[in-house]
Amino acid sequence: MPGGIDDYVGLPRVEKLLRVADELGYGSVLERALRGGAGVADIVELYRAPLWLLGAVARAVTDAITGRRVGYVVNKILNYSNVCIVGCRFCAFYRRPGSPEAYRLSVREAVESVVRDWARYRIRQVLFQGGVDPEIPIEYFEEVFRGIKRETGGEVAVHGLSAVEIDWYSRIHRVSVRELVERLVEAGLDSVPGGGAEILVDSVRERISPAKTRAESWVKVMDTVMALGVPVSATMMYGHLESLEDRARHLLTVLKLQRRRGLVMAFIAWNFEPGNTELQREAPYPAGGTELLRNVAIARIVFRHEIPWIQAGWLTAGTRLGQVSLDYGANDWGGTLYGEKVLPAAGVPLPRLVRDGIERIIRGAGYEPYERDNWYRPISSAGG
Is residue 380 part of a domain? Predict the structure, then answer.
């Protein structure tokens, strides 16, 4: 990994690209970003730069950080309940309390679901998320997390509950965020996913999810989580009602949080899927593939090594575009996500991927795959 913020500008490949960028009028803004000093106006300008240029610079930066290796994790997602009182306009998954289509898994059902996939696929991680279900007590999560750890011998990491869930459950049960997180960690929580960030600008959040946690609250929850030594990831959902300035503010908010705490492991950008959602009337079409590539490349250029892992974004965009995103600075494939229910509710079909399939996809794009754990550390592959 480069030793200082000037090292990227000094890389031979980057120097050549900056000379080309100067001729196109983007050299100074790219250099500021590569030195870690991009502002909102700079990032907006990057969104207008030629895509091939962004991709080439982003890939050069990623090569300097992690080379041509691309990690993946064998995991499942456990949507423990689809009951939610927040009612985001972009979500096709949630159901209101009392709906005939509502469900919530019992502690036993949740634990058994994880154990089945651990035995079948040797999953290393469970992404544990649902709606904000007011009927679920804190003890439910404690029992599930302890059960997962007990029944899998501690082999499955719990990557669980978004900042929004943590914030709402702390208020519903009248405990502080710190106390709630401490209890969850004691029960087996290993890390917190970045869901619920969407766009960290309140004027956007008020339009797409009026009842949701404000941007400042999302940041405060994540700050508290990391202050307790718990790592997190960060996400961005783009392609709905946000502007380029909103995207830029979002990226800088995440970067500021990382510079304060240093435990944001990865960044994941994904496009809004309008199918079966209330927001479909205002944003009827999903963003195109070039938008994913642009967001991946700009994230790498802005975050550089400060957030080392940028995921490929294949989940909403598909595996072929996920392959292309590796050329635009991504260096992690994400997970197999057995059991995912949220995107299928919006009409997005998901492939069933196992180790061999993911490794073929990564190799097919010209990169070297490796299996990793919840903390992005390489582990030996075990077939699957």
Answer: no
